[in-house]
Design brief:
Chain lengths: 440, 220
């Protein structure tokens, strides 16, 4: 699991270590340079300390200026080039053939050599360069040491600071964690650091959306339960009436009523299921090319017996294939509901007409009936769930047009309610958005 | 006893009407608030069964209007609205009882009987006038301790008289109590029933008030 705290710690410690190492390297290089200059000066001073007038009997050179432990080798040659003095016979020192400073490589390492003519003699003072390197390394180490000592303290500081910095996140997390599924009120955004605020605002927006969807679901369930109560109450009463019957005729009539009651409850449950199935959030069938005319024909064939029983002239007035992208099953349910409504409200010997028309790439389904129509004031409300209008004696589910609207919404189709021909009846026009499949 | 049932759902209205008729009530059925108000203008009903969600005029509006006009008829609200606030609102608007759908027909009938009893100022579920006692719940009639059999109409007529002993009913009023909308009334049926009642309970049990109608005296 990634932890911001651990990541910050690792990267900060790594950065700090790299900075420390870089500082040490810088100090080392600078110290070497400076130590070189100082020691060169010392060598020069040492050579200059020899007497110009030459030596009497050769004695030990005055090496007091050189710090103890420094390995300095002094060699003296006379005018004839004969070596007259060597301070360290045990280790043969390097020889340089020029005057002034030079660096000479020997199998034992590099030496810094200074040669000068003093009086009649040539004096050469040599020192291993390792002396300067050790000096510089010691200085670099001294610089690094306090930083290394500070490192654990730094780690602790980072750990605590980052922990404190992340505290608002923990507060938000525990606030969310302690919530019950029903508590959807927004989390407090006040006093949160700018880094945490967007997260909390996003969460709050999600909570608000969830709340809306939840309250929609709740009211739907409440409505559905309430609506189911009426047909079930009817069935219960019908059963009681059937129980009290005394003759076979009465019993047969009671059972016919009971059957009607059960059919009605079943239809309502079916409509509720359809409504839930075409819920915008529900898993949707992918759209496929659908022939609207085929669907219209199917619906007419299916409803023909019901229409016939009421002596209603139900028919389809267009036969040209019209393709759109859609969910065939949902469209069939939608058109079925429209036609059912039309048949239901149209009086005996009326007409219900279906039409599929395409104009400039817009395909429309049109259902026209010769029923009472819907007054303009009610045309918006009829799409509400369980709205039944001001008509007594209807046992519809009140869901038909709600389902129609939902399916239309899924297809981004527009619904228009208007008058039928001659200002009589109802004309429902469902137009699907411009589609590339339409054949002009 | 004649009841007005106001119910917009055809199936429920049909079944409640049938069930109550099986229990011996005379029932008229109005399918919306407007029809209910028209029917209430005719002061023939003993009790109103009122649904709340009605087309044309809400049940509570019907109730408030009739109470404002001084109509004292018992009102039993029969509705699917089961929330406590709805019940409280219904009762506080002038209803005498509140029954939530779905319900048992027997309970509805019992509540109707209880309301009618209270309306007549009785506490005993059995109506006793003189040597006759009538039980509206069991449809049993005893005379001098002996059980008598009556047809549904005869029983209903007897109940009308015994419910208000001392009250005078015209023939038209009695017909209205016994026959609902759409029921054919033959010209002299009430006289035939009264004749039967007298035959079983004694000639003096029901008195003729000449030119006005009939009466069962308080203490025959």
């Amino acid at each position: 699991m990634t932890s911001i705290r651990r990541q910050l710690l690792v990267w900060l410690v790594l950065g700090f270590s790299l900075a420390t190492i870089a500082a040490a390297i810088g100090v080392y290089r600078q110290a070497r340079l400076e130590a070189g200059e100082i020691l060169d000066f010392q060598l020069q001073q040492m050579a200059a300390a020899f007497p110009k007038e030459g030596f009497g009997p050769l004695t030990m050179p005055p090496v007091a200026a050189i710090e103890p432990g420094d390995v300095v080798v002094v060699q003296i040659w006379d005018q004839g080039g004969v070596q007259v003095y060597l301070s360290r016979p045990d280790s043969p020192p390097p020889e340089s053939h020029g005057m002034g400073f030079s660096t000479v490589s020997t199998p034992d390492g590099d030496w810094r050599v200074y040669s000068a003519i003093v009086g009649n003699n040539v004096i050469q003072v040599s020192q291993p360069t390792s002396v300067r390197e050790e000096l510089a390394a010691a200085m670099a180490l001294r610089t690094m040491l306090p930083l290394l000592v500070l490192m654990p303290l730094l780690i602790l500081l980072i750990w605590i600071t980052v922990g404190r910095g992340l505290k608002p996140l923990n507060v938000v997390a525990s606030a969310v964690g302690m919530r019950s599924a029903e508590a959807l009120q927004p989390l407090p955004e006040h006093g949160l650091p700018t880094e945490v605020k967007p997260l909390v605002s996003a969460l709050n927006e999600l909570l608000a959306r969830l709340g809306r969807s939840l309250s929609f679901q709740r009211s739907f369930i409440a409505d559905a339960a309430h609506e189911l109560r009426t047909p079930l109450a009817a069935v219960q009463l019908q059963i009681q009436v059937a129980e009290r019957t005394r003759t076979d005729d009465e019993r047969a009539a009671a059972f016919a009523q009971l059957k009607g009651g059960v059919d009605r409850a079943t239809r309502l449950v079916g409509q509720l299921l359809a409504l839930a199935r075409y819920e915008p959030e529900a898993a949707e069938q992918p759209f496929a090319p659908v022939n609207l005319t085929d669907i219209a024909r199917d619906v007419v064939v299916e409803r023909a017996p019901i229409a016939d029983a009421k002596e209603i002239d139900l028919g389809l007035s267009s036969v040209a294939p019209t393709q759109i992208m859609g969910d065939a099953e949902a469209l069939r349910v939608m058109l079925g509901n429209l036609v059912d409504n039309a048949i239901h409200y149209t009086p005996t010997r009326g007409t219900v007409d279906l039409e599929v028309r395409t104009q400039s790439n817009v395909s429309c389904l049109v259902v026209t009936d010769t029923g009472p129509g819907i007054p303009p004031a009610e045309r918006e409300r009829v799409f509400d769930r369980f709205y039944r209008g001001d008509t007594a004696g209807q046992t519809g589910s009140g869901l038909g047009l709600a389902i129609v609207r939902r399916v239309a919404q899924r297809h981004r189709a527009s619904i228009e309610l208007g008058e039928g021909s001659g200002g009589r009846g109802l004309k429902v026009t469902v137009c699907f958005p411009e589609n590339p499949l339409a054949k002009a | 006893m004649r009841l007005l049932l106001v119910e917009d759902d055809p199936m429920i209205g049909e079944s409640v009407g049938q069930g109550l008729r099986q229990d011996g009530f005379t029932v008229d059925w109005a399918r919306d608030g407007g029809a209910a108000e028209l029917a209430l203008d005719n002061k023939v009903y003993d009790l109103l069964l009122l649904d709340l969600g009605l087309p044309k005029k809400e049940g509570l509006d019907v109730l408030k209007t009739m109470r404002r006009r001084g109509n004292k008829m018992p009102v039993l609200i029969v509705t699917a609205r089961d929330a406590v606030v709805e019940r409280v609102k219904g009762l506080d608007s002038g209803a005498d009882d509140y029954l939530v759908k779905p319900f048992a027909l027997d309970e509805l009938a019992a509540r109707i009987r209880a309301l009618l009893r209270r309306q007549s100022g009785r506490t005993d579920p059995v109506i006793k006038v003189g040597k006759v006692s009538l039980n509206p719940a069991t449809h049993e009639v005893t005379f001098q301790g002996e059980s008598l059999a009556f047809s549904a109409r005869e029983f209903a007529l007897l109940e009308v008289f015994l419910d208000r002993p001392g009250a005078v009913f015209s023939r038209e009023q009695l017909e209205e109590k016994l026959y609902g909308w759409g029921e054919e009334v033959e010209s002299n049926t009430v006289e035939v029933y009264i004749h039967t009642l007298r035959r079983k309970l004694g000639q003096d049990f029901i008195k003729n008030i000449r030119g006005v109608g009939y009466m069962v005296p308080r203490h025959p």
